[in-house]
Amino acid sequence: MSTIFQKIIDKEIPANIVYEDSEFLAFHDINPVAKIHILVIPKKEIRNLDEATEEDALLLGKLQLVLEKIARDLGIAKDGYRVITNINGNGGQEVFHIHYHLLGGEKIGVLNK
Ligand code: 5GP
After folding, report:
1. Which of 7, 19, 69, 107 is the most exposed place for a label (fewest CB within 10 A)?
2. Helix, strand or coil for residue 112?
3. What pLDDT digit, counting tens, does each position of 32-63 carry?
4. Mean pLDDT across the chain
5. Cα(58) to centroid(ligand 1), Å
6. pLDDT reading at 1 higher than 90
7. By alpha-carbon position, which residue is closest to atom 19 of ligand 1?
8. Considering the entire predicted model, what is its pTM?
9. What stretches of 1-113 show up as alpha helix (H) in DSSP?
10. Exposure of 3 by Cβ count < 10 A (0-12 exposed, 13-18 middle, 19+ buried)?
């Protein structure tokens, strides 16, 4: 079944997009938990890291560099930022299309349960 992120990729629902190329899309989280909270996703439908395969190695490697480029373009790279990906129930994953939270623009606190 198609996720909400697939609908954003397909432009069926709007999002505040900050970066797009043929393989990736990045947009502001609708419910930000930091001054800057961007979600970065590959357009390929992968459920989460647990479902990624060797075939996805190059794509996921490039995704790291997209995260870094976005942080730099937003001017938060030097001060620092955090990248998180949630996996399944214990990880708190709600949308089952792999995505990376890019959090910054302020000091990101310690994770608490
Ligand atoms: P997860 O908990 O799966 O790691 O994170 C899903 C994230 O997607 C949440 O931070 C949530 O706020 C965000 N989100 C859910 N639905 C939408 C939406 O329709 N648009 C945007 N921009 N973000 C969404």
Report:
1. 107
2. coil
3. 999 999 999 999 999 999 999 999 999 999 99
4. 97
5. 25
6. no
7. 4
8. 0.97
9. 4-9, 57-73, 88-91
10. middle
Question: How far, in Å, is the centroid of ligand 1 from the Cα of 61?
Answer: 22
* pLDDT at 113 > cutoff 90: no
Cβ of residue 30 lying under 6 Å from some atom of ligand 1: yes
End-to-end alpha carbon distance in the chain: 30
Q: Which atom of ligand 1 is nearest to the CA of 86?
A: 4
- Does ligand 1 have an atom closer than 6 angstroms to the CB of 84? no
Pairing of strands 81-84, 36-42: unpaired
CA distance 79 to 7: 33
Instruction: Tokens for 72, please give them.
Output: 């730099």
Residue 26's beta-bridge partner residues?
19, 40
41 lines ligand 1 (CB under 6 A): no
Cβ-proximal residues to 59 (8 Å cutoff; 6+ apart), any chain: 23, 42, 44
